[in-house]
Design brief:
Helices cover 30% and strands 19% of the residues. It is of the alpha/beta class. It has two domains: 108 residues, no CATH class; 158 residues, 3-Layer(aba) Sandwich (Rossmann fold), CATH 3.40.50.720. A seven-stranded mixed beta sheet has the order 3-2-1-7-4-6-5. A five-stranded parallel beta sheet has the order 10-9-8-11-12, sandwiched between helices.
């Protein structure tokens, strides 16, 4: 048996974006066939490539590997002689009773290796391009979806899908991931429909609050589930005062990281998002987010609404978010 054959298997699984765990023997107390420093690659389905000892240790290792791959957290385990095979926690170490009577004690470190998470970016606008460029630098694989998009124009994307048709998108991508719609005025509604069809864990929309509200109403009127529409996070991004496409992309990715680390994303209440009436003219508006050109951030004071005549005299300016 080649005790280092795990290296070739690790390269193959990494290239195929398949998860595995690297298991290393930290300590071995005789009689054991494994020695400190021995290593093995273990897959979720229980395949072992390398050497970490005989069959007595393998059930505990495979069970812990599955748990580590699910949680993404490394784990140290100890397998020692015992009257039973029950497990117990000893601080940072999980101890298993030896399943057979050969004796000896093994302490192993289980390190899960999972593929980089994927983020799906809809759009071919400046913010979408900036998102696909920045995402790999924080450990995310960016898939870009835009009507007519060409792979050569997006070298940082791991994949480019040149159609935003719902059937094309759902046939090409898995559901339940992280999605950002950054179309900025080009096929916004179509991209949102395709993004919702992916049943994303979180969906961010780079747009002003006003524009997002109008499109939410259109989506519900077209038959989309109101609760899922209300869960669209818009304006997108952390309140860092972003203005340029690159700054907006950075703010959005900061929100993506926060969601990945367990902080709930900002989502509007269903009633407020879909059915809220516009404010009456001439009244003071509530404080409005102003951390970015897309409406993200915190405002320190409320501004009075302009009189009707003045409001009509000022032309509406299109924001960098496309709305």
């Amino acid at each position: 048996m080649n005790r280092n054959d795990w290296i070739a298997h690790a390269a193959r699984l990494h290239a195929a974006q398949q998860p595995f765990a690297l298991v290393t023997v930290l300590r071995a107390q005789a009689p054991t066939s494994a020695k400190a420093g021995d290593k093995a690659l273990v897959t979720e389905d229980g395949q072992i490539h390398g050497w970490i000892g005989g069959g007595c240790a393998q059930p505990a290792v495979i069970k812990t590997v599955r748990q580590a791959l699910a949680s993404g957290q490394p784990q140290t385990i100890r397998i020692a002689p015992s009257d039973g095979s029950a497990e117990r926690s000893l601080g940072d170490v999980l101890e298993f009773g030896m399943a057979c009577h050969s004796g000896g004690t093994l302490e192993l470190f289980i390190d899960p290796v999972t593929p980089a998470p994927q983020i799906v970016v809809f759009g071919d606008a400046p913010v979408a391009r900036a998102l696909t460029g920045l995402a790999p630098r924080i450990g995310l694989q960016a898939v870009l979806v835009a009507e007519g998009a060409q792979a050569g124009d997006h070298p940082d994307a791991v994949r480019v899908i040149g159609s935003d048709r719902v059937d094309t998108v759902t046939g090409a991508l898995a559901t339940g991931g992280l999605v950002v719609v950054a179309t900025q005025g080009r096929r916004d509604l179509q991209a949102l429909r395709a993004a919702l069809a992916l049943e994303p864990r979180t969906l961010w929309f780079v747009a002003s609050e006003r524009k997002a509200g109008v499109l939410r109403e259109s989506l519900v009127a077209a038959g989309e589930d109101p609760a899922r529409v209300a869960a669209i996070v818009a304006p997108a991004g952390e309140p860092i005062g972003a203005r340029t496409p690159e700054e907006i992309a950075l703010a959005v990715l900061a929100a993506v990281i926060a969601a990945r680390r367990g902080r709930p994303a900002r989502a509007q209440d269903t009633t407020a998002a879909v059915e809220a009436a516009p404010p009456k003219s001439g009244t003071n508006l509530p404080p409005k987010a102003a951390g970015s050109c897309c409406g993200g951030g915190n405002q320190t004071r409320a501004e009075p609404a302009p009189p009707p005549a003045a409001a009509e005299a000022v032309p509406v300016k299109k924001s960098c978010c496309g709305g």
